Recover the amino acids of this structure.
């Protein structure tokens, strides 16, 4: 929800895919893991340098688990879960509830009529008026944004959430003496969320879509790339949904998505900071231990067929040119996924990387170039290269120069020095991400949810240590092919 | 420490009564029934030292991870650079960072940094320049040596300068790609007319920058007596001090050029400026000049702005425009406190083109309400509790703690600024909020910038009683 909520932070994915730890052993010793009877998993790391704690709750469900009828529902639900519970956010739920039912009935009737706006114009106007009146009557029972208020007055910061293709995470940092407040609010939220102010929030999400995709050339390019690179796998669908998806999502669908997936068995919590592990386990047991287990989120059955030929797409936007190239590849824990973490460093990270040196520094064809993994990591994903040509050079020139570098990777082994530097960089950047309580909490919940075990982090160094220059060359030759490639150019139209 | 205990007690007072009636051992059912142990907070210590030649050191050991972070801060920025050379700061810092040193060619420098998996960045602002380094603890010596080389003996290699210039030129070409960059640029130009703080780089200004100017700027401002270093992480104090003495000890102090501070003329007449760009949503910025750090009203303004638009979902802008009406996703306001010259007040949002008139009217009304009506005690308490209770988050990162102390010293903040911060916030009253709202929220002189599809909202702009100007953003050549 929230101001900063986003879908697929593309960078997030990168963060998720890239790490490992120099002090893996010590990290392993310091993470206290506890699984409760109802399936909920708690990870605690004690850090007593400041009296604060970061609490991350990750539910292993994201937009990849939607159907075509419910595109956008995971993210809309994330917004709706900031609207309170039967206890919080209302002055009197018993009195509020019948009104909510009326709002919902009228709202869904309106949605139905709006599918044929011309035919139903008169009735729509009438119902819109009625809905506005109902909403304003409902408002008298609403305590606006009560979670935010309670957390804030208690010193909470960073109260937020994000939805990705693969998972949904709810986060807050609190002064450490307020941990019980977190447990009370979040356990109540897990069981008793009330999706009030639904129709207003759909409008908010449409403004979010306009802001984050429709008016931003970089995000527009990214969205076009992902929707084209995948033919049928649900990774192709924008996390936020398309406008008509958002406008037609129903309360029933949103509620059903929550009831189905938001359960202890799909949830991992990380508490990092000035807490005592034993006390934290007791606290979580008291507040979350009685929640029913729930049913595991099923695997997505869809398997993206081999691409079988290049896809080229143009998107017009009033901005200077830029473009993206994507290649399908496996995800973790496949050996080639580790290989791509190394290739990623060697090709595109830092001022000594091959693409930067060649395209930006030496040939000066490109203003910028970057590489990352997208759009998720639960299922096979993409290796992506973004670039912006430097005027007067064109995207076509830069694209050709990029292929030259990819061809080098396919035909010449990278040097041992490059390999060593890439491993060092991956390990050191991983350490840097563990520095903040929030970074460590995020890393732990993400890997637990995506890889099935946060210890993926601990073995990561060994895995990338085993890979050789030959392995990288083989991965490059296998995946950097024309048949496996999607290219999207963003450029101004003729208009 | 003690003042904080008092504050906590005050805050906890209301809950204590409830707590007695609640069952202490089993589950609490509502947040109000909870009671909390006192928070054990002490201000973290930062060790300060001054080398004989004037370099000021701020040191904080933290062995949680085998990493060290270093920030080098120079007490001079680009405010005094000729306005013909706008964009100098970006070109200077990029060339400093990439242009090599007496001991390292540009390529050699990058190779070494990369071999260490080090992060090194440089930046130049209006009042300061800074370099940031992150290295593994075992590489501290070499990392520091490279950093000091850049501070003392940069080469400003001509090829690196040309590449830096090309980068800046390309940024100028791309400066209209994002509507919010267009709006921000226009707002700064309107708030600081005819002033370096309002200028943006152009192809012409960037083309005039020469290597000699970079070298001169470095010679004038990079001196040990103008340098502060904040170092945090996993190091031994004595060993670090020895390294620093060896690397910096023989650097001779010299007088640095005085930085002129051209006065800022506050505009007296607000206006609406419209940039027509075909988009599905309009970016709205509303702004004015703000405060400097010596202004005693800054605490009351902080509280007032929390209620206006700084308190996230607890703020009036967010609750009305987003939460009640669904007219925007992001809506907020801030007062940026200027260190030496007035900072800015900005309120910002985006809404679909057809809603621009409605949203702008709401923003203006919410501002007007704050000027006319006292805020409620509940709003005041929430804002103050939030600011006071979240204060500890200023101290959860050892490098942030270290650089914060360094910056407060550089800009001559009172020595007890942090210690007294919460008391200052706690002292703010409803009357203070009303007074500063009337003083610092001035609808008649606020500048409004709109970037979006103008034909969908321009008819409604006449209602605001401000002159409306169409602004054409120059297309890139």
């Amino acid at each position: 929800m929230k101001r900063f909520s986003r879908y697929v932070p593309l960078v997030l994915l990168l963060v998720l895919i890239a790490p490992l730890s120099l002090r893996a052993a010590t990290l392993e010793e310091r993470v206290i893991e506890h699984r409760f009877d109802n399936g909920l998993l708690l990870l605690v790391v004690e850090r007593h340098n400041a009296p604060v704690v970061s609490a991350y709750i990750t539910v292993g469900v994201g937009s990849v688990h939607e159907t075509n009828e419910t595109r956008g529902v995971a993210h809309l639900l994330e917004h709706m879960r900031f609207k309170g519970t039967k206890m919080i956010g209302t002055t009197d739920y018993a009195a509020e509830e019948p009104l909510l039912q009326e709002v919902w009935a009228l709202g869904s009737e309106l949605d139905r009529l709006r599918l044929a706006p011309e035919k139903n114009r008169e009735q729509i106007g009438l119902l819109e008026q009625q809905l506005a009146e109902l909403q304003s009557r409902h408002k008298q029972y609403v305590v606006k944004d009560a979670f935010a208020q309670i957390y804030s007055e208690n010193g909470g910061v960073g109260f937020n959430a994000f939805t990705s293709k693969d998972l949904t995470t709810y986060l807050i940092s609190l002064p450490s003496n307020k941990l019980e407040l977190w447990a009370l609010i979040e356990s109540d939220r897990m069981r008793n969320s009330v999706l009030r102010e639904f129709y207003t929030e759909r409008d908010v999400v449409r403004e979010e879509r306009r802001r984050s995709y429709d008016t931003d050339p970089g995000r527009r390019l990214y969205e076009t790339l992902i929707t084209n690179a995948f033919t049928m796998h649900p990774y192709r669908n924008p996390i936020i949904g398309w406008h008509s998806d958002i406008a037609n999502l129903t309360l029933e669908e949103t509620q059903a998505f929550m009831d189905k997936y938001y359960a202890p068995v799909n949830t991992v919590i990380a508490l990092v900071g000035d807490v005592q592990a034993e006390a934290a386990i007791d606290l979580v047991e008291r507040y979350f231990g009685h929640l029913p287990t729930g049913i595991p989120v099923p695997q997505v059955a869809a398997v993206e067929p081999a691409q079988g030929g290049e896809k080229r797409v143009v998107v017009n936007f009033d901005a200077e040119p830029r473009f993206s190239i994507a290649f399908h590849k496996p995800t973790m824990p496949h050996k080639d996924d580790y290989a791509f973490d190394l290739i990623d460093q060697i090709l595109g990270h830092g001022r000594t990387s091959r693409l930067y040196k060649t395209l930006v520094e030496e040939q000066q064809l490109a203003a910028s170039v970057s590489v990352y993994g997208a759009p998720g990591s639960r299922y096979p994903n993409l290796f992506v290269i973004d670039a912006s040509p430097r005027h007067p050079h064109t995207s076509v020139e830069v694209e050709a120069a990029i292929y030259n570098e990819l061809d080098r990777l396919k035909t010449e082994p990278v040097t041992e020095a490059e390999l060593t530097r890439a491993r060092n960089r991956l390990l050191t950047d991983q350490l840097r991400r563990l520095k903040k309580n929030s970074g460590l909490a995020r890393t732990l919940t993400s890997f637990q949810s995506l890889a099935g075990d946060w210890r993926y982090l601990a073995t990561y160094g060994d895995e990338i240590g085993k890979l050789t220059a030959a392995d990288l060359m083989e991965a490059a030759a296998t995946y950097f092919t024309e048949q496996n490639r999607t290219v999207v150019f963003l450029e101004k139209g003729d208009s | 420490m003690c003042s904080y205990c008092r504050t906590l007690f005050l805050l906890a007072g209301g809950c204590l009564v409830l707590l007695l009636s609640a069952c202490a051992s089993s589950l609490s059912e509502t947040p109000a029934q909870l009671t909390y142990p006192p928070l054990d907070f002490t201000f973290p210590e930062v060790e300060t030292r001054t080398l004989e030649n004037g370099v000021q050191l701020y040191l904080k050991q933290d062995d949680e991870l085998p990493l060290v972070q270093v920030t080098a801060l120079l007490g001079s920025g680009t405010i005094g650079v000729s306005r013909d050379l706008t964009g100098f700061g970006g070109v200077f810092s990029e060339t400093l960072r990439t242009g090599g040193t007496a001991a390292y060619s540009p390529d050699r420098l990058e190779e070494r940094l990369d071999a260490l998996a080090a992060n090194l960045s440089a930046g130049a602002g209006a009042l300061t320049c800074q370099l940031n380094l992150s290295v593994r603890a075992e590489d501290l010596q070499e990392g520091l040596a490279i950093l000091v080389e850049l501070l003392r003996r940069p080469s400003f290699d001509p090829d690196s300068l040309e590449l830096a210039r090309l980068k800046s030129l390309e940024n100028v070409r791309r400066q209209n790609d994002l509507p919010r960059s267009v709006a921000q640029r226009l707002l700064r130009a309107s708030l600081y007319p005819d002033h370096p703080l309002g200028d943006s780089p152009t192809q012409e200004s960037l083309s005039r920058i020469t290597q000699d100017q970079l070298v001169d700027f470095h010679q004038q401002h990079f001196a040990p007596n103008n340098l502060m270093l904040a170092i945090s992480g996993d190091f031994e104090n004595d060993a670090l001090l020895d390294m620093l003495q060896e690397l910096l000890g023989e650097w001779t102090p010299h007088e640095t050029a005085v930085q002129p501070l051209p006065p800022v003329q506050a505009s007296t007449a607000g206006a609406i400026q419209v940039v027509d760009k075909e988009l599905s949503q309009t970016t709205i910025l509303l702004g004015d000049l703000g405060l400097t750090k010596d202004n005693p009203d800054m605490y009351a303004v902080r509280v007032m702005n929390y209620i206006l638009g700084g308190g996230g979902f607890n703020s009036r802008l967010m609750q009305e425009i987003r939460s009640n009406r669904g007219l925007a996703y992001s809506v907020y306001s801030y007062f940026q406190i200027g260190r030496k010259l007035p900072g800015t007040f900005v309120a910002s949002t985006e809404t679909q083109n057809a809603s621009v008139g409605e949203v702008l009217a709401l923003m203006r009304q919410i501002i007007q309400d704050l000027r006319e009506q006292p805020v409620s005690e509940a709003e005041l308490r929430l804002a103050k509790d939030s600011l006071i209770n979240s204060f500890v988050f200023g101290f959860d990162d050892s490098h942030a703690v270290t650089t914060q102390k360094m910056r407060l010293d550089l800009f001559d903040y009172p020595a007890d600024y942090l210690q007294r911060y919460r008391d200052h916030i706690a002292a703010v009253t409803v009357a203070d909020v009303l007074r500063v709202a009337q003083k610092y929220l001035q609808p008649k002189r606020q500048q409004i910038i709109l970037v979006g599809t103008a034909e969908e909202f321009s008819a409604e702009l006449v209602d605001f009683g401000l002159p409306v100007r169409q602004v054409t953003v120059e297309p890139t050549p």
